[in-house]
Hints:
Blueprint: H1 6-26, H2 30-39, H3 48-69, H4 82-97, H5 103-117, H6 122-137, H7 139-146
Amino acid sequence: MGKNSVWGRRRARRALVQALYKWQMTGAASVTIQEEFEDGEALKEADSRFFAETLHRIITTHDVLDREVSPLLDRAFKDLDPIEMAILRLGADEFMHRPEVPYRVVIDEYVELAKTFGAEESHKYVNGVLDKLARSARSVEVGAHRRPG
């Protein structure tokens, strides 16, 4: 499978959850985290360009993403579980910067990652927040899919 395949992106997203968690917990530089992941197994057959671009963009613009997500939460952003925080930042980033990825794919990918890495019910929370975010960030696309016939 190629690095730019669907599976390559899926592997990159999985590594991104882990990389953002590490950044959130340690404050390490994005370059340091990227090098660590490149040296390990996490990016094996992953879309490494997608990983690097997304990691650097989120670390440098997380405040913008946080402002987009915060009004949709039932608690302060800083009170989120770190895994949920990383996943919601990733979903928001894809909605805003990856218009070629359908919104339903973004939601499905990150809900699955919440099932893998998050607390028992976090995937439901992630699904709800990303669904609301899709309605504002991708309103035309969401509207087109929700129209009858």
